[in-house]
Amino acid sequence: MLTFEKVQTDADIAECAALAKEIWNQHFISILSQEQIDYMVSQFQSERALRRQMDMERYSYYFFTVDGRRVGYFGISPQKDKTMFLSKIYMKKAYRGNGYASKGFAFIQEQARALGCSKIWLTVNRYNEDSIAVYEHWGMKQSGVKTTEIGHGFIMDDYVYSYPLT
Description:
This protein is of the alpha+beta class. The protein has five helices and seven strands, in the order E-H-H-H-E-E-E-H-E-H-E-E. The protein has one domain: Gcn5-related N-acetyltransferase (GNAT) (Aminopeptidase, 3-Layer(aba) Sandwich). Helix content is 39%, strand content 36%.
């Protein structure tokens, strides 16, 4: 059975950061260098980074929990323009393809609607073809391109995808 558990305690944050490190090293190694993965996990997915996002940037994190096992996570952040930024949505490799992420996206839609958001949007690496296929399956549409320098000579070369809430 799938449930969504809010990340709240220091232990939860540590577990979420550990999941991030595991999943990023499973998924992104074919897209990014190990150096960039390590840097991005440290900057955006570490305990320190997750805590900062939760405390200062209005992020909420949730675990995908299947039969009591935490197998993935997602992070959302309501924006001042009444949109919902879907910052992160990651699942362990063994649990992909079971519809869990789609159920998570339905949960995210509920959260966004409850806050009066007009759309959900995200950024995705241009070469992350598997994730792009999932987002398009959900009805998301490419709405832009975004290139961001993130330090240490690394860039994020992304598409922006959005989903209108009606």
